[in-house]
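BUG-405 | component: ligand-complex export | severity: low

The export step for protoporphyrin IX containing FE jobs runs without errors, but we want the raw record kept on the ticket for reference. Input record follows.
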Amino acid sequence: MIDSVFDQNYLRDPHQVYAHLRQRSPVARTATSQAVKVWLITRFEDVRAAMTDPRISKAFADHPEVFKANELEGGDSRGAAAVAPDNMLFSDPPDHARLRRIVVKAFTAGRIRALRPRIEQISASLLDALPPDEFDLLKDYAVPLPAMVIGVLLGVPEPDWPRMIRLSSTTIEGSARDPKAVLAAAEETLAYLTDLCAAKRADPADDLISAMVHVHDEDGRISDVELVSTSWLLLVAGHETTVHLIGNGMRALLGHPDQLARLRAAAGLLPDAIEEFLRYDGPISTATFRYTTEPVTIGGVDIPAGQLILVSLLSANRDAGQYDDPDRFDITRKPAQHVAFGHGIHYCLGAPLARVEGEIAFRQLLERFPALELAVPADRLAWREGMLMHGLTALPVRTRPATDG
Ligand code: HEM
């Protein structure tokens, strides 16, 4: 019998569970909430070592038996990777480099720069539509903003955005409790994107999918299936993550009025503050599954071949071996080496866009609401279920005008 550390205690306070593991069992044998056996790695240096070890693979497409072999009774290890495995996130070299290159060529710094005014406009229109006194900063702002930005980036027609938001949320959210819903959503998204890629080929526009189709036609080294799977990855990887950068960062600020005041007084601190939001409560708890292709030793623990590995980014970012007083939230800390965007060859491809979105979101929120505060006691805020994402279920806030009393 292997207990899961992803239990009610984890849901209440993941940091406490991770602090305990880092101290007592930094490479722990445990199970996911879906009864799949894993090795959970929680210390900063071990996490980085596992993420760069060539004997630890992410390519599951040809090895579904690795998942099966690690299921406990009644366990269900199927995830979205089962439906859309043909992209960089679920590949090893040399396929990984081939699949990543096509996006790198199309997702240029110029494309991100050009998106900036659109993001500012979308953010401002969401803020304009908010109720005047109280709202859920997640549902009413942090969820739609990145979804709409991904819609613009990929070239998804605006009438399809609500459907896209629903599918992407189910793919990620459902992974906590309902594997069937995840598969159904991933399949529907793939079918939708297959049609969209065909439409972009027939009638290219100024968007990322059209640019990828162009590179694909020139390069000819990535298949149509891989192209669709890559578009799917961009859609799901770029949405929920950015939602929780905004939500978790805002929760940290509202819970630390001294830090909020410092940021309001010196807007130039914002880029550093965003890195601290990512370190202190990053959007991803454990990175996506990996597995050992050979026996490895991590943090002094021998792990046989064919085992599933989870690395905790949330935990690594609070490792006292890496940061002074890691549980202190300090927007001037400059945490250059956090792993919120991952590490090694799978380092987040969308990090520059996520940073731009974060910068615009926080700047506009703080400017628009000079006296924003939590509308519920902080201990009423709840973390969502699941071990992939680390984000809140809701973030109710009140907007008291600064002139109020
Ligand atoms: C704050 C927001 C974000 C965070 C915290 C984040 C985090 C991550 C992490 C941790 C990984 C590596 C996962 C692993 O190794 O298992 C990753 C990969 C990836 N991310 Fe992000 N991400 C964010 C936003 C975005 C955005 C906006 C996009 C695109 C529009 C994006 C696209 C990708 C892609 C394509 C990969 C796969 C890279 C590869 O396998 O080579 N991400 N991200």
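Assignee comment: Attached the raw record above. The two ends are 59 Å apart (CA to CA).
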